[in-house]
């Protein structure tokens, strides 16, 4: 595919090059703007040429310039660009604030490390000046930090009392203990063990009146105690509370001001951290401020650039708005000129009519009154106003559209009737909530619903009530909305049952007053309750000459299970049977199961008869079972030798078995542990 060649005309080529540079510098939207302007100019030029070629009587309408739409679109684009730049400026300000917050967090984390390092360096220098062996003290403190036994506490206290000979040494050792307790990342047990050592030394100072050492330890006790409280759990805080109660009871341990500070751990710790930052954090704050200033300079540069773009766009928008106003004024002037031309034409027509009409001295009946001007052309017959104008009725065979109002009348908007949406799937695949409109408030007894009455709700956006209900459903339980043990909201259906009871009461009152008839409720369904009372004593003799029928295709086990099932079906009490309804149509009745009993041909029956059995239940008093035993069931090893009819689901026996099995399991586990220890 060959590329199009540039035009031969030099002037046209220069115009195209300038337009391309203008579009590349200002964006593609200005290309569309230029095209719209050129198209409008060409259209205006054509209209001017057409108007100049027409006679002066037909120049009664001047076309307005169609540049309003393009100008409106350009102004909207500029407004969108201005809003985008303003939004970017807001985002840049938010990013600057977020960077400042991140720097402060980093400063807080790094500040602790820097303060700890500088404090350690100063402490080393002071220890060298006071001849305090911090390495030896560290070795003494390590067993206290690890295990905190009574011997390790005693050893640490002895070392401190031996090496403290003046005030400076006491403060150096107290600061080192504070550093061990406030080290970044130190656990609560480590801090607590150091506090226990300080407590023992304070007890010795109060008893021996060692003022210098007591003052030194009191200066670090608040920070040490509050630092441990900041990382303690609820159970660990009990230990600190117990220690604080001890210090409060001993008036000679700490000063009252120190005890008051210990009662406010958060405020005291914040005060200590502020002092440390003011003392050591000046250099780090300068570095952080320099980084933040770099971010601020970038933000200000972007804001200046965006502001300049917004200013340029506002100027262009102002120019376009002025151009739009000029076009509107031109359109108004054209409309005024059009009205003037129309008035002139009307005046000319009236003058022509007056010139054509001859003067009349006497009124004639055949002529119209003087108030109504005669037609322009007398040869044309006057219009017949008794008939409808042409085009009023449609062509033959097509009725007019009477659904719309006549011309000049407003269109009547009919009220929107909600459509009833029929479901396209079976009712059992629809949501259960669609059944709710079919159930009336006054319905209290069961009444089957008609699936054909189920309708889908019309499509509509979710209402505020529905959204609030969904939020309340997924909201966690609160004091205003408590839940029961199963997770349902308490009194959630209170309003429903309140309205239900009111409707039920109103219905009963109307029935009692005779306003409405009592609805026919369906006959209750009586559930057949199976009971298995002890069967009466029956004696089976071998008097019947015809033995019962036998099925050779059935095994004895099936016969026995069949007889047991038939026995259970015969054990229903006649009181619990529901009355049989009248059958008006023939119903196929299933054959009754054949009742199988022990007959004289059974070997077991014969043996029992020889032993004196009367034909009823087993046992001396015939109190046992009288039906054949069903197939053997799988029993536990301990229950396999129990007799027939013995209950295997005795709760006391099951409890004894479980306890015995648990005891045996524990004994086996203990024996295995002893065997492993002996190995």
TrEMBL record:
Residues 503-520 have a biased composition (Basic and acidic residues). Pfam families: CID (PF04818), DUF7819 (PF25127), G-patch (PF01585), Surp (PF01805). GO terms for cellular component: perinuclear region of cytoplasm. SUPFAM superfamilies: ENTH/VHS domain (SSF48464), Surp module (SWAP domain) (SSF109905). It comes from the Eukaryota. Keywords: Coiled coil. The keyword Coiled coil applies. Residues 28-63, 353-405, 502-600 are annotated as: Disordered. Residues 129-270 form the CID domain. It comes from Popillia japonica (Japanese beetle). GO terms for molecular function: RNA binding. This is G-patch domain. Residues 600-649 form the G-patch domain. Transmembrane segments: none annotated. Residues 49-58, 353-365 have a biased composition (Low complexity). Residues 68-102 form a coiled coil. InterPro entries: CID_dom (IPR006569), DUF7819 (IPR056721), ENTH_VHS (IPR008942), G_patch_dom (IPR000467), Surp (IPR000061), SWAP/Surp_sf (IPR035967). Residues 366-405 have a biased composition (Pro residues). One of its GO terms (biological process) is intracellular calcium ion homeostasis.
């Amino acid at each position: 595919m060959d590329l199009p060649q540039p035009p031969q005309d030099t002037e046209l080529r220069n115009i195209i090059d300038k337009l391309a540079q203008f579009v590349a510098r200002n964006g593609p939207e200005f290309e569309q703007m230029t095209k719209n302007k050129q198209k409008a100019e060409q259209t205006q030029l054509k209209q001017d040429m057409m108007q100049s070629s027409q006679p002066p009587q037909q120049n009664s309408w001047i076309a307005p310039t169609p540049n309003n739409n393009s100008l409106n679109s350009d102004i909207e684009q500029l407004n969108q660009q201005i809003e985008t730049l303003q939004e970017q400026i807001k985002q840049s300000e938010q990013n600057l604030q977020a960077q400042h917050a991140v720097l402060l967090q980093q400063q807080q984390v790094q500040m602790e490390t820097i303060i700890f390092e500088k404090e350690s360096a100063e402490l080393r220098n002071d220890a060298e000046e006071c001849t305090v062996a911090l390495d030896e003290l560290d070795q003494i403190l390590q067993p206290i930090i690890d295990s905190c036994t009574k011997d390790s506490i005693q050893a640490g206290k002895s070392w401190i009392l031996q090496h403290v000979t003046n005030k400076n040494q006491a403060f150096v050792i107290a600061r080192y203990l504070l550093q061990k307790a406030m080290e970044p990342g130190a656990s609560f047990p480590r801090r607590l063990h150091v506090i226990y050592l300080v407590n023992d030394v304070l007890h010795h100072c109060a008893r021996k009146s060692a003022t210098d050492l007591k003052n030194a330890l009191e200066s670090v006790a608040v920070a040490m105690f509050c630092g441990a409280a900041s990382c303690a759990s609820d159970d660990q805080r009990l230990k600190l509370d117990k220690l604080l109660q001890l210090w409060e009871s001993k008036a000679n341990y700490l000063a009252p001001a120190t005890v008051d500070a210990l009662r406010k751990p958060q405020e005291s710790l914040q005060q200590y951290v502020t002092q440390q930052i003011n003392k050591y954090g000046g250099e780090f704050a300068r570095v952080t401020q320099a980084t933040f200033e770099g971010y601020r300079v970038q933000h200000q540069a972007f804001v200046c650039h965006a502001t300049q773009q917004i200013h340029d766009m506002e100027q262009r928008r102002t120019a376009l708005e002025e151009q739009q106003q000029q076009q509107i004024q031109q359109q108004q002037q054209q409309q005024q000129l059009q009205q003037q031309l129309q008035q002139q034409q009307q005046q000319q027509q009236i003058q022509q009519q007056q010139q054509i009409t001859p003067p009349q001295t006497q009124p004639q009946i055949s002529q119209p009154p003087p108030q109504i001007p005669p037609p322009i052309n007398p040869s044309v017959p006057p219009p017949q106003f008794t008939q409808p104008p042409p085009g009023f009725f449609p062509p033959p065979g097509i009725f007019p559209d009477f659904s719309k109002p006549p011309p000049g009348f407003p269109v009547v908007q009919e009220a929107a009737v909600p459509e009833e949406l029929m479901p396209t799937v079976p009712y059992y695949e629809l949501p259960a909530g669609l059944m709710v409109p079919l159930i009336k408030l006054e319905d209290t007894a069961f009444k089957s619903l008609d699936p054909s009455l189920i309708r889908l709700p019309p499509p509509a956006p979710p209402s505020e009530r529905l959204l609030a209900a969904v939020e309340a459903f997924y909201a966690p339980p609160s004091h205003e909305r408590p839940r029961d043990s199963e997770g349902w909201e308490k009194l959630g259906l209170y309003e429903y049952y309140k309205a239900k009871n009111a409707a039920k009461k109103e219905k009963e009152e109307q029935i009692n007053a005779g306003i409405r008839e009592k609805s026919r409720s369906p006959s209750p369904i009586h559930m057949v309750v199976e009971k298995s009372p002890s069967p009466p004593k029956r004696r089976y003799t071998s008097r019947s000459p015809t033995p019962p029928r036998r099925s050779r295709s059935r095994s004895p086990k099936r016969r026995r299970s069949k007889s047991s099932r038939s026995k259970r079906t015969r054990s229903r009490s006649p009181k619990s049977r529901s009355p049989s309804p009248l059958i008006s149509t023939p119903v196929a009745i299933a054959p009754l199961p054949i009742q199988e009993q022990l007959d004289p041909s059974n070997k077991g029956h014969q043996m029992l008869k020889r032993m004196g059995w009367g034909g009823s239940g087993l046992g001396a008093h015939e109190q046992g079972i009288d039906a054949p035993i069903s197939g053997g069931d799988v029993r536990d090893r301990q229950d396999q030798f129990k007799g027939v009819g013995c209950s295997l689901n005795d709760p006391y026996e099951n409890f004894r078995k479980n306890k015995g099995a648990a005891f045996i399991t524990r004994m086996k586990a203990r024996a295995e542990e002893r065997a492993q220890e002996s190995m």
